[in-house]
Amino acid sequence: MPLKFYFHPLSSFCHKALIALYESGAPFEPVLVNLGEKESRAAFLKIWPAGKFPVLRDDAAGRTIPESSIIIEYLAQHYPGGSRLVYADPDLARQTRLRDRFFDFFVHLPMQKIVGDRLRPEGQRDPYGVEEARKQIRMAYGMLEDDMEVGDMAGRTWAMGEEFTLADCSAAPALFYANMQEPFGTGHGRVAAYLERLKKRPSYARVLKEAEPYFAMIPK
User: Fold this and answer.
1) 111-143 as b/e, with b when 16 or more CB fall inside 10 Å?
2) How far is CA 174 from CA 30, 149, 190, in A?
3) pLDDT digits over 99-109, tens only?
4) Is the pTM here over 0.90, yes or no?
5) Spans of all domains in the chain
6) pLDDT confidence bin for 172, thresholds 50/70/90
């Protein structure tokens, strides 16, 4: 099998790339990485010394592809499936990448700040940084809700229209995990409905099903 996917089933960025793999339909070998286990960690560092997942290895092409957005771009170019994921039109592709960046920078990363802070020892936590992360997530929810009501996303099934793209791959785990840490609450009904559509998408439903046995490990 030419493709190997190095991941952890709880990693939100791994979820993002896994959605694209299932959308592509390309056969791949999943390789679960346990950074806390010496042999697993050492084997992964040989593939990608930076030690961050996800990583896609294409043995047929002799390429190692890190970072979720880059993995999705690579799949769209070399292993296209039923979903386009990235448009050929430069303007649409740029808009798709902008939405991908929005979900990563304003939802995904602040969500990880909140979760990561819970893993810190007592006395080393960062309550100010966590509150700033929560503010950023709430700001992003508000921007999304407005966009879905009167902006470019109004009336759309997915972030870019009726086609499922890179932007939706990014939105799904970002919103799913963010809602666990900073619930949508009232006033974000359109964002909540979008997440429900994402959760019912077969590719993401499969990712969530496979991650279920590990959800108890998420710090509350």
Assistant:
1) bbbbbebeeeeeeeeeeeebeebbebbbebbee
2) 22, 20, 16
3) 999 999 999 99
4) yes
5) 3-78, 90-201
6) very high
Q: Minimal CA–CA distance to 171: which of 10, 8, 15?
A: 15
User: Was domain 3-78 assigned CATH 3.40.640.10?
Assistant: no
CATH annotation of 90-201 = 1.20.1050.10
CB 31 within 8 A of CB 78: no
- The predicted model gives 174-190 an average pLDDT of 96
Single-letter code of the amino acid located at 140: A
CB 20 within 8 A of CB 85: yes
What integer best gives the mean pLDDT of the chain? 95
Q: Given this model, what pLDDT does residue 1 score?
A: 63
